[in-house]
Each structure stands twice: as C-alpha cells, then as structure tokens.
Design brief:
There is one protein chain. By secondary structure, this protein is mainly alpha-helical. It has one domain: AhpD-like (Up-down Bundle), CATH 1.20.1290. Helix content is 69%, strand content 0%. It is built from 8 helices and no strands. Helix 4 runs parallel beside helix 6. The two termini are 20 Å apart.
Length: 169
Amino acid sequence: MSRISEINIETAPENIKKIVADHVAEGHTITAEKRTLLHNAAAFNAVEAGSYALDDELARLIGKRAADFYEYAISQANGCLVCSIYFRNLLKKNGIDFDTFAFTPEEEVLIDYGRAIANNPKRVPEELFTRLKTYFNEEQIVVITAMGVMMIANNYFNDILDVTPDRLA
C-alpha cells in the first residue's frame, strides 16, 4: 500500500486541475505516480514536466523506440515495479516483447548503458562510453544521461513512497 495517498482530481485545487487538464491535452495519461506527485504542483512539474521535456528531446535525437528501450532497461535494473509495468505495457502496445526482441547495436548499447547507470553510476565502464561514442555524439550522450537521471529519480520516487503500480495490460 502506498505511503502517500493519490490525489482526487475531482476535488483537487484549481491549479492542480489545470495541470491535469494541460497534461491530458498533451496526450498523456494520469498514472498513480502522477496522482501522488499532484499533491504539489512544483513537485509534479519538476519530476513529470522535466521528464517529458527530456524524453521528447531524447526521442528527437535517438528515436522513440530506442528511448523507450533505454528507459525500460533503467527501470528494470532499478527494480521499479511502477515504471517497469508502465514500459512493459507501452512496449506490448507496440507489439514488442523486450525479452525476445532483436535490438539494433545502438539499442543494445543504450540498454547496457541504462543498466550500468542504474546499477552503479559511479562505476560505468570506460568500454561502455567507447561503445556509446561509436553511435552517439556528445550532445546525444548528455541528453541520454540526463534522461537516465530523471528515470532513476522517477523510480526512486515510486519505490520510496511505495506508489501502487498501474495495472499490467
């Protein structure tokens, strides 16, 4: 059971209702994580708006599918049930079974990098950076890394507050 309740959007303050309306208008869903973050507009904007802005930039630079694989690998390595279920559902919706999918070399290095930064950010192997630089330029690596940090923050938020996962499709 979650340590913090999910906000009731119908009875939420007007500023929170506006954030929800804007978020939904942008095509996003309201998840358990978001209903928990919505207890405070600044917290929601920092974690969610920051993540979405970086995710959009990452998708622009490396492609949506590669970004999703990367973020899912981080969530799996962190053991975050909430985000792992979210990405598993997203991939399943796109007809992708992560466990059996044939990844491109670029996707494989992203998955390896995501797992490495989630498992031990202070000891990412130099060999992995060499592989990253084979496929991605410095701007891309900065955005990839920044998105990884945001993904880890999302995972920690969910795990620390024991946010209830949304259902597996």
